[in-house]
Amino acid sequence: MWEYTDAVKDHFLNPRNVGELEGANAIGEAGSLNCGDALKIFLKINENERIVDASFMTFGCASAVASSSALTEILKGMTLTDAAKLTNEDISDYLGGLPKAKMHCSVMGQSALKKAIADYRGIQILQKPGEIVCECFEVTDLEIIDAVKTNKLETTDDVTDFLKAGGGCGNCLERIEELIESVKTKG
Ligand code: FES
Fold first, then answer.
1. Whole-angstrom distance, CA of residue 9 vs CA of residue 136
2. What spacing in Å lies between the alpha carbon of 144 and ligand 1's midpoint?
3. Which of 55, 54, 45 lies closest to 25 in space, CA to CA?
């Protein structure tokens, strides 16, 4: 059984801002039902690029619901410029922390937010930059390097906890290991 903080339990049992948002002018989706977690966030952004309202719909575990609920609360009132700087750690910190094996839920929130901002700005994300390393969960080398650096990940298990990469067939584990090593040596 996972150890959840009171804030995680509260946001799971009483999620804020659930459902489609009428008048939303930015929508971002992350995850996929194939991996068990999926998230869609809706933002209403005013002419000064401030987020005046936010909501979400998710299919996932307690941490996915709590992370999405927390994310929408954090976003309300924020400028798009500040929102673009939000990290998965900010979401986890807002909840007083998430179990390590559940950090991918906060990463999913951050990724849906990035897509919503791109949607608002009219930027089409056709393809993720970088090379796909984990075919099972469509995770690229750049995403792995970024997560390793930002969250100081040390092992392939850490990477699986954060990005799910490596948690399926395991064919990508060797490459993940190499990427971790390259960050350690090159920084
Ligand atoms: S390719 Fe990464 S777990 Fe299957």
1. 30
2. 13
3. 45
Q: What is the pLDDT of residues 159-176, one digit of tens each?
A: 999 998 998 888 999 999
139 assigned to some structural domain: yes
Look up the CATH number of the domain holding residue 181: 1.10.10.1100
Atom of ligand 1 nearest to the CA of 135: 1
Do 21 and 77 lie in one domain? The reply is yes
Please state, in angstroms and rounded to a whole number, the distance separating the CA atoms of residues 20 and 16.
12
* Shortest-distance atom of ligand 1 to CA 167: 3
The reported pTM is: 0.75
Average pLDDT score over residue span 52-77:
94
Residue after which a domain boundary falls, among 94, 120, 146: 120
Instruction: Tell me whether residue 172 is one of the annotated catalytic residues.
Output: no
Domain holding 169, by residue range, is 132-186
Retrieve residue 123's tokens: 């930027």
Q: Is 35 a catalytic residue?
A: yes
The per-residue pLDDT for 100 is: 85
Q: Give the nearest ligand 1 atom to 137 CA.
A: 2
Q: How many residues does the structure list for the chain? A: 187
- The rounded Å distance from CA 62 to ligand 1 centre is 24
Residue 56: pLDDT band by 50, 70, 90 thresholds?
very high
Range list of H helices, 76-138 = 80-84, 88-94, 103-120
Counting the structural domains of the chain, the total is 2
Q: Ligand 1 pocket: which residues have CB below 6 Å?
A: 134-136, 165-172
pLDDT confidence of residue 174: 96
